[in-house]
Specification:
Helix content of chain B: 55-70%
Order of helices and strands of chain A: HHHEEHHHHHHHHHHHHHHHHH
Distance between the termini of chain A: 13 Å
Number of domains of chain B: 1
Oligomer: heterodimer
Radius of gyration of chain A: 22 Å
Structural class of chain B: mainly alpha
Mean pLDDT of chain B: 87
Distance between the termini of chain B: 37 Å
Largest interface: A-B, 16 and 19 residues
Strand order of the largest sheet of chain A: 1-2
Helix content of chain A: over 70%
Radius of gyration of chain B: 20 Å
Number of strands of chain B: 0
Shape of chain B: elongated
Number of helices of chain A: 20
Order of helices and strands of chain B: HHHHH
Number of strands of chain A: 2
Low-confidence stretches of chain B: none
């Protein structure tokens, strides 16, 4: 894709810290001024700069074949905080850059529609802080710093979800619920990091990993793994710790749902992989035991139970939210398989799921912009009224099921072959079963859109034209679902590099 | 008629300047003793909150307007990040204070740098404390008591 660094050396030398710095500074500037439009522009500059810097770092890594590291304040690791980007987190950074940019294009009309003018600048400031936190989590090489960035990303998320209250007051309880659970998750995580610090005396990830190798029998280390696993699984919405997610996604503003669904849980999933394979010793019996006997059964339950729950929802955004929990199950199954093939299938599904849910939630945003519809019964006849948006939604839905020639099929194919490699036939059967359940919930929406006739209103309800700012990101995402379903090299390559970097250490390039 | 709470008002008027001075002492002595921008910020905010408790939120809002508070919250972050950007522009790593001053044997750059970022922390903490206080104190209930 990109073979070498393309920015001037003054920028590319400091690219790892600029990734976090640019959106952070812009957030402060946006928060201090009242204009919502300036806020949007600044947010766009922030995410695009992240994308460019991430591409440059990718180029640097391709050229040198080594991870890119940066010591904050000139304090060398393990004493200072180190930012460290290897094959695993570059995939996340690219995902954040791309999805952030597409979601923000969609944000301008959608936020103008849903958020009061006086609150727009603070809304964009909160978004930028959240984005800073997510980028920080995927950049840092310091275990405690990761906790700080996790909180930096979570706290504005609560506020962003609560902003949905202007349309639906239930956003407030959803946000509060997430606040309580998210804080519990963060606390569990930081307790685990504390135990690690207690038994190693360091917070630098690479240094912890070096010191942990001899401590596999240490009960404190084992407990630390349990705490970190629970804390991050809560952030990643692993069944049954997903209770915050359906309401949060259903009542947040459309833009917030689109952005969170395609990034936030993914970053927590990345942190889980980083801790399990890079920091703890993945050959230790307590790690393999927990992965096989706790993570895998929960992942399988998420796939089946949440897909079944999705069938019975009335609110379309809740259908997709429960489906998100099921998709987290697929990723976690790859993680639980714990082989190179398994983790790369999980990472691939992480990238692909962002494309599918991005397309679906932007399409829902378009429907909601035009008609204000949310309930499944109100989707009747939308196919005739808005054929373009409906077609894009259909592509996303088919990808969610895993129809061939879509990205959903590619990641399920890799997941199935990873399960077979491990000899887990039952897992294959459950993946297929859960896909059948996905057929049901997607079918319920599509039949309303395309087959059922629209109800007749007298006088006809006023409809707003969907602006290009919504249609452009929608079609980019929908077509990406098809293109990367055929041209699989790019995403599969990124996912396999990531898995190699996680499991074998080094770069995985 | 005598104004109410005369003792409280006189005593707090006497105390508030000392609280503010103590806040700055904690800030500037943070190099050598426990303290620093965070603690000092809380003390400074406590002075304003005491003023608001005794003289009313409206008087406090006149003394420290909420619009300043909002700008101050962002400004503190900008001071902190700005210090880092200055060190970047002077050819060092992000937040590498050594480049700020050529006298390396006395670590003068480190002293200047830490004071600058602590100033940012002070500004943000003071303003966030006040913003939270104003948000709670200025809140009117959605439903008045008679409507229940």
């Amino acid at each position: 894709m990109i073979e070498a660094s393309f920015l001037p050396a003054a920028l590319s030398d400091h690219a790892p810290v600029l990734l976090v710095l640019v959106p952070m500074v812009l957030a402060a500037i946006v928060a201090a001024q009242p204009s919502g439009r300036f806020g949007w522009l600044a947010a766009l500059i922030g995410v695009v700069s992240t994308l460019i810097l991430a591409l440059d770092i990718y180029g640097q890594m391709q050229a040198s074949g080594a991870p890119v590291a940066y010591a904050i304040g000139g304090w060398q690791p393990p004493y200072g905080i180190e930012f460290r980007i290897d094959g695993l987190n570059i995939a996340l950074l690219l995902l954040l850059g791309v999805m952030g940019t597409l979601a923000l294009i969609f944000a301008l009309p959608s936020v103008a529609d849903e958020i009061a003018k006086s609150k727009q600048s603070l809304f964009y400031a909160a978004f930028l802080i959240c984005f800073t936190g997510l980028v920080g989590v995927s950049t840092t090489g310091d275990a405690f710093n990761l906790f700080v960035f996790l909180e930096i990303s979570s706290i504005p998320t609560y506020a962003l979800i609560a902003m949905g209250a202007q349309k639906d007051r239930r956003a407030l309880t959803a946000s509060f619920n997430y606040l309580v659970l998210g804080t519990i998750g963060a606390t569990f995580f930081v307790i685990g990091v504390g135990f690690l610090y207690m038994s190693t005396g360091t917070l630098n990830m690479a240094d912890i990993a070096r010191l942990l190798v001899e401590q596999n029998d240490n009960r404190v280390v084992q407990v630390a793994f349990g705490f970190i696993l629970v804390g991050l699984a809560l952030k990643a919405a692993l069944f049954p710790l997903h209770m915050w997610l359906p309401n949060g996604y259903a009542y947040a503003p459309n833009f917030v749902t689109t952005f969170l669904a395609s990034t936030a849980t993914k970053v927590a999933f990345y942190a889980l992989i980083r801790f399990t394979f890079d920091i703890f010793d993945p050959t230790a019996s307590f790690v393999t035991g927990l992965l096989t006997w706790v993570i895998t059964p929960l992942a399988v339950m998420a796939m089946v139970i949440s897909s079944a729950q999705a069938i019975f929802q009335v609110n379309v955004r809740r259908i997709l939210a429960y489906s998100s929990v099921a998709q987290v199950g697929y990723m976690m199954l790859g993680f639980g398989i714990a082989s190179l093939a398994g983790v790369s299938a999980g990472m691939l599904h992480l990238l692909n799921h962002a494309l599918m849910k991005g397309a679906l939630f932007v399409a829902l945003g378009a429907f909601s912009y035009a008609y204000g519809v949310r309930r499944i019964d109100d989707f009747k006849g939308l196919g005739q009224l808005m054929p373009g948006v409906s077609a894009a939604f259909t592509i996303g839905g088919l990808s969610l099921i895993g129809v061939p020639f879509t990205v959903g099929f590619v990641s399920k194919f890799y997941l199935v072959s990873a399960a077979l490699e491990r000899g887990w036939w039952w897992a294959v059967a459950l993946i297929v079963f859960s896909s059948v359940l996905a057929v049901f919930y997607v079918y319920r929406i599509l039949i309303n859109i395309w087959v059922n006739p629209a109800p007749v209103h007298e006088p006809a309800i006023k409809v707003r034209r969907v602006p290009m700012m919504i249609l452009i990101p929608l079609w980019i995402l929908a077509l990406a679902n098809l293109v990367f379903g055929v041209q699989t090299d790019l995403l599969v390559g990124l996912a396999q590099d990531a898995a190699r970097a996680a499991l074998d250490g080094g770069m995985g390039l | 008629m005598m104004p109410p709470h005369i003792v409280l008002r006189v005593v707090s008027k006497l105390l508030i300047p000392f609280i503010v001075v103590f806040g700055f002492y904690v800030h500037f002595h943070g190099d050598y003793s426990p303290g620093g921008g965070f603690q000092a910020g809380v003390i400074l905010a406590a002075a304003v909150i005491l003023y608001a408790l005794i003289f009313g939120v409206d008087a406090a809002k006149k003394a420290v307007p909420p619009s300043w508070v909002r700008i101050g919250m962002a400004l503190g972050g900008l001071i902190y990040a700005g210090t880092g950007i200055v060190t970047l522009l002077m050819g060092g790593d992000f937040l590498d204070y050594d480049v700020l001053h050529p006298d390396l044997s006395h670590k003068s750059g480190q002293h200047i740098g830490i004071m600058c970022v602590e100033l940012g922390v002070l500004t943000t903490v003071t303003c966030v404390m006040l913003a939270i206080f104003y948000a709670f104190a200025g809140r009117t209930p959605d439903i008045s008591d008679e409507d229940w």
